Amino acid sequence: MNTLPLSVQRVDQEPAFSFLSRLAHHNGLPAAIFAEDLGIKFSEVVAGHADAIIRLAARAGVEPEEILGWTPKHLGDREHEFRGEIFHAKSIKATSIKACPACLRQDIESGRHMGALRAQWMPRYSYICHDHGLPLVAIWSERTPSRRYDTSLHLPELRDRIFAGEFDRSPREPSYFDTYLYNRLRNGRGENWLDNFDLHAACVFCDLLGRAVMKLNGQTTIRLEETTKWIVPAQGYEVALHGEEAIEQLLFELEKRAEAPQARPKGVYGDIYDRLAHDLTSPSYDQFREILARRLRKAWPLGPGDELMGEPVLERRLHSVLTASRETALDRRRLRKLLAERGFVRPSGEGLTDAWELFDAYDAQSFLSDLDDLVSAKELRDALHIPRPQLDLLREDGFLQPKLDPDDAKPLWSLKEGTRFIDDLLKGARPIHVAMHGWSSIPQVCKSLWIRPGEVVRLIQAGELKRIGSYSQANGYGSILVDRDEVERHISRDEAPGMTIEAFAKAVGLKPPEARRLILDEQMPSTIAQNPKRKARQRYISAQDHAAFDYRFITLRGLALVLGDTWQSTLSRLGAAEVRRFTGDGRDYGPVFLWEDLEEKLICRWPSEQRVREIRASMHSGQPHDH
């Protein structure tokens, strides 16, 4: 294969797209057109395709290994391979291009006409040029890859600004983290503890550790400028350099600053817990997650209603003096003295605070069971956070019966049994930090639906309710959250003559006011009957009413199920066919359509009765339907 008469010298660490852009500029053409003249595509070079880069190298007269070794290769699924490491697209192919202005000036002054990018600058956590000590700075941003990586479109225009020092920032010495990343990219893995992990995962973990260090020091990362963000992973690297023991010590120091574990792991540890527990769940982060999980199992008195790395805690393994005090209803000072006498904990003043002084829940189970845990009704209500009317109703419904109920004295309850009652209701509950999207406490749902708390408790105990929440802003009985609509479906299914308008609207994909408007305008039938709970007359949608609606109408959600498509694509098809929503006499009934309009426009035919039943069942369950 003939080499080009006009070629350029490749710069060390230069990726293929930068080299091709300079070569194209030297030959007076845009990169995309020049690539086509070479028989390749610029997009293939940007993606790191070996065949295209080998052909480019042959025409340019350079060794292909030199270019391939410093060009990120797209693997699919937003992953890239670079220097033997796997990077997520956002961490190696950002929309902003970083560079060292001193390197670019040096390139131009050496007669290269246009500066060359270095692949070393591309990773998210590359912050500094190791040749000049200047911070890397974003010199342009472009969302379209073909324009972003064609350096000939940008660098000539930036030449004057580069030489004017507009992109120069104050020089600094590379941090240990900067040097670690630089050496690992050039030389591969060494004997550093972090070399046991994928490079990108190690960098992310250093960043999270750095955030934890700053949290410990009362600092925040929110207002950090781009040129100072290097401080965060640099501080984290100083911890990670010493391995797992140093990491656990950092977590311990954060715990000491917290008043009590009730702040929850995210409140104590910050971003390192939140990201590892919920976002960074790929195998690359497994060992980092295990370090944090091991610390939680070792140092946190977790029980039902809590979570461990995003998973609900089903049983308690550790107690603190504080959690045991709540469970036994004994004064903390008295309980700690008793526990210390038996060797379960250290005496007050010698160990940690009551919230953090821990002991094995299994070993102390018999001892705690033997303690006198009988309390009055008021003490039970206060300990379990149950309002007085709720406790009275629960007693009438057969729950929370007193342990002792003599005729000549006030009844007494076992606080242990009361706590177990709450814990059982919270088993498998998902942590809820903001009570939105239909979440209601038991008192709230009882007031809303005119039902007794015993009915809700029985549904939970029988496993009928699938959505149970543990509200982090409340304790005990008040922390139990249920889905109001789910409760309503269970309590009314055998008694009410049909669905409420609200339930019908939710099931078919309309808003309640839209469904109510259809009914009041007599566009669909409804059934007026007595509410079995409130005893007031109201409108319901019976099975016959529902069938009448299905015979004449279908909503956007239902039509998407019929067509086996997304609602967005279905909406586009309707627009293309000029099918309009049903409006009656100019009324807004929401995304509802007439079957006769759909058949006329050949969108689809009215399905069989069996098919309608299948679609309706799929819509009501909220589950995808097999097409």
Structural write-up:
The protein is of the alpha+beta class and 627 residues long. The protein has four domains: 16-163, no CATH class; 176-300, no CATH class; 424-492, Arc Repressor Mutant, subunit A (Orthogonal Bundle); 508-621, no CATH class. Helix content is 47%, strand content 11%. The chain is built from 32 helices and 20 strands. The strands form eight sheets. The protein has a four-stranded mixed beta sheet. Strands 1-2-3 form a three-stranded antiparallel beta sheet. A hairpin with a 2-residue loop joins strand 2 and strand 3. The longest helix has 18 residues, at 199-216. It is flat and about 105 Å long. The two termini are 54 Å apart. Mean pLDDT is 88; it is low at 622-627.
The radius of gyration computed from the alpha-carbon positions, rounded to a whole number of angstroms, is 33 Å
Number of strands: 20
Straight-line distance between termini? 54 Å
Please tally the helical runs, counting DSSP H or I stretches of 4 or more residues. Answer: 32
Principal-axis shape equals flat
